[in-house]
Amino acid sequence: MPPQHSKMLAEERRREIAKLVRKEGSAAVEDLVRRFNVSAVTLRADLGQLAREGVLIRSYGGAILPEEQPVRDAPLNVKKTYTQSQKMRIAAAALRYIQPRQTVLLDSGTTTAELARAIKWANFEALTVVTHAINIAQEFLNYPKISVIMIGGIMRHASGSFVGPQAEQCLSQLHADHFFLGVDGLDKEMRLSTPDLLEAQLNKIMMQVSNEVTVITDASKIGRRSLSVIGDLSETKRLITDNRVNEDLLKKIRHTGIEVVIA
What is the pTM of this model? Predict the structure, then answer.
């Protein structure tokens, strides 16, 4: 009887792990160990079994959603709880590429929101920020040295950002020194993607009107895809991510010739 009970516990745990990865797109071993109160050895065995079943893909330090399952959009208040420390390190690394008096274009998302906070704390003597994201514009309300250009259009409730023809028209009349792009997926073909078609179209224009494009994304997004393709990684200058990225994928990324920064 005890062995059967243990087996049922393991199966139930794996179902919960699979549910979590499908919901969040990724999971770290250390987080799962705390959540399920099991050893790292047991947890890795669970991930190995789920990987063999095709439910997830093992990555360094955890697991990610298989590329064949597009990542669904999640509200900002949910996304901001994911990989928070990694996003803060990525933002700190990205800040080094911003110079005073530049015009910086910031995409919507939680990693770019961390960069917005880093920018305001850096105390630039002057800077212009262009964004279509409400939460990013709000970061600079009490920082008069930072000029903000807000792009309007159709509001996406999930991201709190504006998209659509009006946003595209407004953006096409502007120019930026540097665009920081947050993505929901960077697949094995080195394509950048996001869950929303209109967001992807706007991101393409953002790339076109900018002198330099830096992708900022945590490692859980690398090796997976989302619904709408933005463009190829080779169209950008650099990628800033964290140290959990899969080594094989990292080699493939470096092979494209872009600069890779590990935060």
Answer: 0.72
